[in-house]
Write a structure and sequence with these properties.
Layout lengths: L1 H23 L4 H23 L11 H11 L9
Helix pairs in contact: 1-2
Length: 82
């Protein structure tokens, strides 16, 4: 269902952010799991709230973040190399 897809997307996003935080911050695996547990408990409410948003109200822009990402790509010392 659409709700399951949104919930899966939110979980995946949260899991990726926590994984990055574990690498960047002195944060252990156990603390990361605690954070994921708390975030996971908020997902059903977030899915319900997302279903109430009208299509014309959906939008997102982060110009500075996009520029910083582009600049980071060309740095010699990067935080994460892929």
């Amino acid at each position: 269902s659409a709700s399951d897809a949104v919930a899966g997307y939110l979980w995946s996003w949260a899991e990726n952010q926590v994984a990055a935080a574990i690498k960047l911050v002195p944060l252990g695996q156990t603390a990361g799991q605690r954070i994921l547990l708390k975030l996971g408990q908020t997902i059903p409410a977030l899915v319900a709230a997302a279903q109430q948003i009208k299509d014309e109200d959906i939008g997102q822009v982060a110009h500075t973040q996009a520029m910083a990402s582009a600049w980071h790509e060309r740095q010699y010392s990067r935080l994460f190399r892929s």
